[in-house]
Design goal:
The structure is a single chain. By secondary structure, this protein is mainly beta. The strands form 2 sheets. The protein has a 5-stranded antiparallel sheet. 18% of the residues are buried. Belongs to the NPC2 family.
């Protein structure tokens, strides 16, 4: 009983943390995605060049997932500049049970990354390449730190 209450409270706290997070848009507003994204939190915000940045995606699923992939595309002023693919189980604990889960990805952006506004598109696929969700959101890279500043 205590562990289920603790899990419930921690899930509520986690979802509350995402209520003031980055605005997201679904790629296809009419699609009935199997994974619903509750929010995205970026830390730090704005992202600092040459410093670790973490993108955390709070989501919920109606079906258990044992494998899959994330495909990430980044655009700068509308121009596609970067793509990468990640194993779903490398970004969250697998298997993903029915209910709430979080995908967290951290990386250091190169010091020469231009400051400004970027957009990120994230597609999630299951092990059979069925698209589970597709979202877009914006983020900023600040004028602050860079490798050259060190």
């Amino acid at each position: 009983m205590i562990s289920s209450n603790l899990f419930f409270c921690s899930t509520l706290c986690l979802l509350f943390a995402f209520t003031n997070a980055t605005d997201i848009r679904y790629c296809n507003k009419k699609a009935d995605y199997d994974v619903e994204v509750k929010g995205v939190k970026i830390s730090p915000d704005p992202v600092a060049r040459g410093q670790p940045a973490t993108f955390s995606v709070a989501a919920t699923t109606g079906k258990a997932l044992s494998e899959g992939k994330l495909v990430i595309e980044v655009s700068y002023f509308g121009w596609h500049i970067h793509s990468e693919t990640h194993d779903l189980c490398g970004e969250t604990s697998c298997p993903v049970s029915v209910g709430d889960f979080v995908i967290a990805h951290s990386q250091v952006l190169p010091g020469f990354t231009p400051p400004g506004s970027y957009s990120l598109k994230m597609r999630m696929y299951d092990g059979t390449n069925h698209e589970l969700t597709c979202i877009t959101f914006g983020f900023d890279i600040g004028f602050g730190s860079s490798v050259a500043d060190s």
